[in-house]
Every structure is written in C-alpha cells, then in structure tokens.
Description:
mainly alpha, 434 Repressor (Amino-terminal Domain), two-stranded antiparallel ribbon, 21 helices
Amino acid sequence: MTALDAVTLGKRIAATRKAKRLRQADLARESFVSLPMVKAIEQGKRYPSDTTLEAIAGALRVDPTRLLDVHTSTETRVHAALLGTSASLAAYDVPLGPPRRTLDVLRPIVDEAVHWRLAAQYGRIAQQAPVLLDDTLAAFHAAQDKREAARLVVGAARSVDAVAYKFGARDLSARLIELMRWAVPHAEDPLLHASVAYVRTEVFFAARAHTVGIRALEAAVDAAPAARDENTAAARGALHMRAAVIAGRDGDADTASSHISHARRLSEQTREGTYLGTAFGPESVRIHELSVAVSLGQDHIDDAFAVARSWAPSTSLPAERRSGFWIELARAQTWGGRFNDAFESLKVARSIAPQHTREHPWTRETTGTLVRLRRADQESLHHFASWAGAV
C-alpha cells in the first residue's frame, strides 16, 4: 500500500468522522482503537489493519467499503478460504504430485502460522490455509523420512483448525483433527501425540460429549511420557488443564478439581511458555482455574472472582489465551450482577485479540445479556454489540 493510499484513506476516515460530528477521542473510544493510532491513521502515517478498519467503520456506522472500496471483511475472507481448505482435505492421503516447496522452506512458514494462531490472527492464517495444507501434505508424501514432514502437517492443520473452529465450521474442524491424528504416528513423538489429544477435545466440546471427552483425555494422560523435564511436564499438564475444563462443563466438580490440581503441580516444574504449540505454565493454569469455575456455573462465581481479584494475565502470554481470560471473567461478572465490570472485561478482551473476541460465542451471549438488561453505557454497548453480532 503506497503512502498516497494511506493519506487518501486517512482523509476519508476524518471526513466521515466530522460528518458524524465526532471528535477523534470519540472515534477512539467507540472503536476501541487508541487515540494516537486514530490520529496517525487520519494523518496517513499509519495504514490500519483489516480488524482496525472494521472497528473504525463500525464506530462510524458505515460499511468498511465506504472507507476503502477494495476492502473485504475478515469474515468473508475466512469463509472463502475455508471452502478451499475443504478441497485440500478431500484427498489428504493420496499423493497428487511432487512438492512445490521443500521441508526447509515450509518449516518457518508453518512456525509463522503457529505464531498467528497464538496471536489470534485468523484472517492471516485463512489466506494461507489451502496452499499451506497442500504443500505440507505434498512434502509429507514425497519424504523418505516422514517424521519432520508429519510434524509440519500437524502444525499446519492445527493452525487452520483454529480458524475453522472459531468461525463455526465444526465439521471441517473435525476433519482437520482427523488429519492430525492420521499424521501424528509418523512423527514418532509421544509429546506430539499428547498435543493432538489436547486439540481433539474440541470435538467433544462441540458435541457436548463431556464424559467421553474426559475419558479420552485421561487415556492421553496415561499414554504420555512421565514428567521428567519441562517439555514432558508441559505435555501432561496441558492435558490435565483441558480435562479440568471439560469436567467442569460436565458438572463434575471433584474431577475438575483433581485435574486442575495435577496441572498446578506440573506447572511448578515449568516456566510459562509455548510447548509444541500449546501455552502452559503457572499463568496458564491460573487462567484455567477461572475457566473451570465458569464451566461449573453460577454457583462457582466466587471461585472465579477469587482468581481475578488481585491478578491478571501478563502481556507475555499469547493473545488468544489472554483474551479468553477476560471473556470468561465477563461471563462470571454478568452472573454476579457486575454489569459494568463485565463490559469493561469484554473491551479488554477485544483490545487484546479482536478476532478471537468477536467470534467467541460467550462474547455474544454476555453482550446480548447486557443489552437485554440495559446495563453499562448504552451507546458504547450498542456499538460493541453490533460489532460482535449480538444484536
């Protein structure tokens, strides 16, 4: 994008804002974009990301194409890419031709996709998804030693699955998980097996098959290597975290408590970090303590508040995980009648990871509840609800 394009877009945003009789500070507040960023965009010094442009357009109550006629929304791009992804999966086990890119070339590309997943940059993943799956699968079929190629297939499929799952393409998500389960034995890595078992839980969440999900995760814990270093402790700990949440969804407080206790002890053997694409450590466990309390329902909101009373996730955690904390806290705050706090938590979640927050079903549920109860600042809440698709 040229400097002239940025200047032209900035002038168009400024003119629309003035026509709406809004100050820059008003636009910043209503769009949840910082005031310095709004000023820089209007001056043509910064070009907004797709998410930022959509937020500004929402605050101005215009379609984004009124500001940028070539704009295509993140949601539109994602759903178009998911169609191509489905085609890529149709014959994943059939070699269709020589690879276009080598494993050495693909490795940093898959690593970048993993980074985007953790940062909740779903639009970026979607743009690459069909080609990335095609190329990693082609490299896998052509490889003599399939271990590294299998790892790349799993990494690529997990990143694409995050997009499919968040945007409601649950059947496609299940197929991507089956692809991971098909590829992972070739990696000959028991820790990667544990990682795929962690992701597989999405299927049980989607189907509300909580009891079966607990059994599957407990079997994965039994199959995982003993905790002898950070990597093995993180693999087992992540499975316990996941089991705790799904037990909470099943209303089984005792099982949830047991698993979160195991996860907490294992986190003491690790530093907070990302292990085979999954964040784990003391902070992640603390976030899951809140998740368990929320999963168990309104009778446990005091437990959720206890976690958040004097603590919040640090900025070193992946954006997806941090925003999830605030979304779940907002749900608990709504149950507890703390409506203004709930809206503030949702705004924090949006500032951290807009795409994740917008597509999270609890964002829409909580926002819809606040709107129905006519709580929080009404004008800002209305804008937020429109942005989240809650009204």
